[in-house]
Amino acid sequence: MTRHVLSVADLAPAEIRAVLDLSERANLAPVLRGRGVALVFEFPSARTRNAAELAVVDLGGHPVTIRGEEIGFDVRESVEDVARTLGCYHALVAARVAEHATLERMAAALDGADAPVPVVNLLSDLEHPTEALGDLLTIRQCLGSLEGKRIAFVGDANNVCRSLVSGCIAVGAEITVASPPGYQLDADFLAAARAQGGAVEVTAEPVVAVAGADVVYTDVWLSMADKAEAVAKKAAFRGFTLDEALVERAAPGAIVLHCLPAHRGEEITAAVLEGRRSRVWAQATNRRHAMRGLFFFLVESAGSTR
Predict the structure, then answer these.
(1) CATH 3.40.50.1370 is the classification of domain 131-284
(2) Which of 146, 170, 209, 268 could form a disulfide with 242 if both were Cys (CB 3.0 to 4.6 A apart)?
(3) Could you check whether the bond before residue 13 is cis, i.e. omega within 30 degrees of 0?
(4) Could you tell me the residue ranges of all domains in the chain?
């Protein structure tokens, strides 16, 4: 069976560590030489597109970026037909989609066609696994290890948060998520995370989450999909801004992460984003390296099944 990565949970803990190790190697074999990789974006992208395209180039391949309107999922063609078409040309298909089910349909279509072409989630409404891999890589580089580290996520328990929680569980890190009522991790996800032995806590108090943390993480309150909620959401998140007073409650050597784009003055202040604890730009850089490690891992895995 072809390996797809639609969720962080699609990778075993040892495989996550292997991907992180590969991500730090600059001399990976050009496993994509003479081969294409399809990068499909239903939504605009800055870091993910740049990271993915350059990761493909790093491995000797040719990235083909495709906008959502060029393929028209279930309008111009079915999701399944698009996936099978891309599988005819490419060694790997990666997509940023509105609905996670689209990725599941793509993977199922390629499996059904007996095409050993991995599908990678570049962001869906449920998860953002490539972001989480870059985050874990950054934490490991900055703090020396992942096991036992305490991460505080302050903000909307969104797709980024869920992938980060799954990643922390896999590598033995502890995570506390601070979100206002109505924007917290859903009960089913939380129960499943804890059933895996994950050290996951939730709170509605940012000061509780941040106290003694090694990593303080936030994300935008308003994603591309929820602009209509702007007024209500900003009101709900009052008091959840990462400012200097809040961050000083973290451990002395704590770092600050933000997956970007940042809205200075909302989820984070300019002083914190640009401050001495911030590792935001190293984090952005690591998106490329983590993607390179993941693509290498998947292409090698797919090759072994042929």
Answers:
(1) yes
(2) 268
(3) no
(4) 8-127+287-304, 131-284
